[in-house]
Amino acid sequence: MEALADWTDGRLGIYALAKSNIRKIFPDHWSFMLGEICLYTFVIIILTGVWLTLFFKPSMAEVIYEGQYIPLRGVEMSEAYRSTVDISFDIRGGLLMRQIHHWSAIVFVAAMLVHMMRVFFTGAFRKPREINWLFGAGLLILGMFDGFMGYSLPDDLLSGTGIRFMEGAVLAVPIVGTYLMFFIFGSQFPGVDIVPRLFTVHILLIPGIMLGLLVAHLILVFYHKHTQFAGPGRTEQNVVGMPLMPVYMAKAGGFFFLVFGVVAFMSAIATVNPIWLYGPYRPDQVSTDAQPDWYMGYSEGLIRIMPGWEIGLWGHTLNMGVFVPLMIFPLVLAAIWGYPFLEAWITGDRGEHHIADRPRNAPVRTAFGAAWVSLYLVLLAAGGNDLLATHFDLSINAITNAARIGFFVVPVVIFVITKRWCLGLQRRDKEKVLHGRETGVIQRLQHGEYIEVHAPLPQDRLYTLTSHEQPQPHMLPAEVDENGVARKVGLLERTRVKLSRGFYGQGSQIAKPTAEEHQEIASGHGHH
Helix 94-121 to helix 33-53 angle, to the nearest 10 degrees? Predict the structure, then answer.
């Protein structure tokens, strides 16, 4: 092995590479595991996906089923559907592999979304990590669409309904919608080409792009070093944690098998996508309670709450009831993905940031993220309005109207509540710094007054609560310069100043205590 290592080093220089990186330090915090879950579920998806491709037949040729599942015997279906049923019932371990693959995809997208929100709420997207934020955003959107294509491949009634949904959205695009539909499907819906095309894109094109983005994402994490939360000894210039080898790699390896075990356990006890119950796809049949996987549910919600609005123009019909939701669909995601660049423009901050924020110390950012999550949940609920109506015995029209109102009202309400909540927590932190923590010990003074004794916080806690930055709002320059010449201030600059006041002005952050305030109270002036 030593000779092999020497031979490899002579050609690849692995000794120098290992010497500079094998002891690289990684900080430790439970929330950092979210990114690892994304990585490990992606690996599981690739492994199980390779196995499934050995048995799946991406063909829409019509055949008669004669397999082991008796209720479907004699039914005409596509080869894609038959091969998926065969994987489920005729191939040993096939159903478990299908379930692991599907559950991994669901957990993968969920972990990416939660990981993205962790990065957002802690401000870990700031310089120098903006490009990595976009890489993560690309991975999320590609994962969503690859998941949609994956559960569309079996050509069952549920997946066929989803493809029909996609076809209707494409047709709603003005002028070019019909051409796009024929380009995608190769003929009139459903045609015979859509499953083979989806299969190629699902197993080859999108995974290849995702793999490249993932490698680039990890390289940038390694290069920029991981963010860490504020604490004693932690600065913008260092990293406090455990070395990559052997500590971090040992923990990461164990966590991979733990994730794999949990996904396998879920797959063994919880059925997902039982296509044999739905039957093969027929264009004249639609399940009433057909639902996509959760990550595409908000697109369904957009369609369901949009009124049936059509416009006749020059002899053509514009289906705005589908086209408008189709345009809002990417805007919902772009709103959260573009936020880092908006914040950087408002603050004018050009410095590097390696210390993660506590969400309470960025009230407007945290409120915006919470409002975005609330909008996503409203649309997700709207996408299942029929299930909510049947399960809770409610009017589907009432649910739809409530979702329409909630689309505009709920994010605003959540924004206001979250911002006030963050400001309240900031006041609480300031109180702790200046007066210490409550001990529960009641003391009676000489003149009869009862007070609660407060214990001063330890130095490391004081540092954690006061080490965050507080950007100050920008101000418009003087109306005239030193020569008495009127200054010209553009609309963009005025907008930036107004937004800056909204983000960091009075009412948007509580000034953290100064050393003088703490010293004055600690010395006994008014402190018990």
Answer: 150
* Token duo for residue 312: 């006749």
Per-residue pLDDT of 218-233, as tens digits, reads: 999 988 888 999 888 8
pLDDT digits 0-9 by tens, 177-210: 999 999 999 888 888 899 999 999 999 999 999 9
Cβ contact 263:41 at 8 Å: yes
* Whole-angstrom distance, CA of residue 128 vs CA of residue 301: 36
pLDDT tens for each residue of 242-270: 888 888 889 989 999 999 999 999 999 99
Bridge partners of residue 87, in order along the sequence: none
Query: 452: part of which helix (H) or strand (E)?
Result: strand 450-455
Decide if 259 contacts 41 (C-beta within 8 A): yes
- pLDDT digits over 124-152, tens only? 999 999 999 999 999 999 999 999 999 99
What tokens appear for 231 in the block?
Answer: 């604490």
Residue 346 Cα distances to 461, 472, 485, angstroms: 31, 11, 27
Q: Is 491 helix (H, G, I), strand (E, B) or coil?
A: helix
Q: How many CB atoms lie within 10 A of CB 193?
A: 13
Q: Rounded CA gap, 273 and 293, in Å?
A: 9
Q: Where does 384-455 have alpha helices with state H?
A: 385-391, 396-435
351, two tokens: 């410095």
Q: Do 112 and 139 meet the contact criterion of CB atoms below 8 Å apart?
A: yes
Of 320, 290, 334, 344, nearest to 129 by C-alpha is 344
Decide if 178 contacts 303 (C-beta within 8 A): no
| Cβ neighbours of residue 279 closer than 8 Å, sequence gap 6 or more | 72, 75, 156, 157, 285
Angle at Cα 504 formed by Cα 357 and Cα 512, nearest 5°?
60
Please give the Cα distance from 336 to 169 (Å, whole number): 23
pLDDT band at 288 (very low <50, low <70, confident <90, very high): low
Q: How far is CA 489 from CA 345, 477, 495, 500, 503, in A?
A: 16, 8, 10, 16, 21
Q: What is the rounded distance in angstroms from the CA atom of residue 112 to the CA atom of residue 295?
A: 11
pLDDT per position as a tens digit, 391-428: 999 999 999 999 999 999 999 999 999 999 999 999 99
Q: Which amino acid is at 47?
A: L
Report the Cα 235 to chain-centroid distance in Å: 28
The residues, ordered by sequence, that sit 6+ positions from 163 with a Cβ below 8 Å of its Cβ are 152, 190, 194
Q: Are 28 and 229 in contact (CB under 8 A)?
A: no
CA distances from 75 to 91, 149, 158, 196 (A): 20, 25, 17, 22
Decide if 58 contacts 196 (C-beta within 8 A).
yes
User: What is the rounded CA–CA span in Å between residue 345 and residue 474?
Assistant: 11
